Fold this protein.
Amino acid sequence: MEPSEIKVLVVDDEPSMLRIIGAWLQGAGYQVRQATDGQEALHAIEADCPHFLLTDWEMPRLDGPALCRRVRAMSLPHYLYIIFLTGKGAREMVIQGLELGADEFLTKPVNSTELLARMRAGTRVLELEQRLSWAARTDSLTGLYTQRFFYEMLQREFHRAKRYHLPLSCVMMDIDFFKRINDIYGHTAGDTVLKAVADLLAANCRSADVVCRYGGEEFCVLLPETVEVNAATWAERLRRLISELPINCGDKVLHVTASFGTAQAHDDIQTPEALVDAADQALLCAKQSGRDRVVRYESLSDADELTLQEAQRYEDLFRGICARHVMTPLVACLRQDDSVGQAAEFFLRLRINSTPVVDEEGLLVGMLSEKDLLGAMISLDCWRLPVREVMKQHVIVYEEDTPIRTIYEFLCRVTIRRVVIACNKRPTGTISRGTLLRWFRNLVISKGLIEDPDLLHREPVDPHRSKHRLAQTARELTRQAQQLEQRVYRDDEDIVPYVIGSATGMQELVTDLLAYARYANAGSAAVSAQMYSEGASVD
């Protein structure tokens, strides 16, 4: 550190001492500020922390020992070297000052040569502290901040954003298939890739942004005063730059891609850790939906986060179970050329809230939900829009042979409610949290842990309500059957999807009929039992 880089604060209630000390230090090239008492010095330190504090012992309002005690209790950006200037050099005073946190003592009258020598000695201490601090908060390979220092900065920025109502966004990034690079080309090549990506990240961030190596091939970026839409735009630009970056590894040139997840500190995110976790959830969805993409957290469905801590105790429950054993089979999908109006009718007829979308060859190309349809209903013309213009292209897909525990952990970890199951990129089913609950309930019944499924229903049955539901269900079944009959004789459209969809809907209605019929006679049975007990004859 050169003297011109070092800031010094001199505190003394004697104007002559301030002038003399200040002139010596300025003559040696130091940046000098002055204060006349401890209280004024505290305000100066809070506004711009110096490297050296030269303070008198006895001062009005706040004396030297009290100032030293207050300074050592402050959270400062770097170490502050404290030198006491005092006319009393008693041993007890020196001991007291050192215990309060002072680094050095100079006895008045001060000698300029000794003062500058003490400053140079203190500078060596500050340089060592600076190197140690830098080593503790930066990653040795990439030169980025460590995860520990990142969380220190996150705490500060999170509370600043909440206090002043400023936006704050977080971006999580993961290099795709990084393990393959280590396995194929070696760890030296892997380190080269990490360093190249880290340099690219650092070069494309503002001075106020905080970039860290979160762990392994994962990076995290904090973007103060940035909304999530802009954070996603920044992440998309970085994604393209990374995919175009040639990385020289010896005689080979490697190209890599990366997945990004973004999140913003909205009111429902109450802690700094929750902000990082939200970005991590979005990153997990980006990786699972195909990698090399950016996913925003606010684009995910709202739901309460579940915990795996208790569930992990029952790992044997999922042994040998794959996605195809649990999934709800798909009997029909929307095509990307279908209109929004056809999709709305499809949803209403089948009583579903989302469905995969396929192309002409039956390959999965997207996912459409009721929310997507509502977003498209801004004019009557939108009714004719093709589904491909309103669907989400990022689809969470698992193959049929995926262990069900993998999907279970994913649904517990993120806010997404449903994933698509596919075979050779063709959707064959879906698994939702409800699917897993039904599977678990059936497993409990099959294991004999409950004798009768009806024992799960603790509420008393209302026979009149059951009869009303029975009549409603019968009318709906009749309406769907008539609608199917009318479509059979149309020659201008493919009726197979309608037949499959109608059959599925009517199957559910028949199941409802059986369920309501079981309780519809509960009232009559009770009356019959009462009449029999009174000796009446019952036909």
User: Anything to note?
Assistant: Confidence is low (pLDDT under 50) at residues 301-315, 452-459, 524-539. The chain has four domains: 3-137, 147-299, 311-453, 459-531. The chain has 18 helices and 19 strands. The longest helix spans residues 112-137.
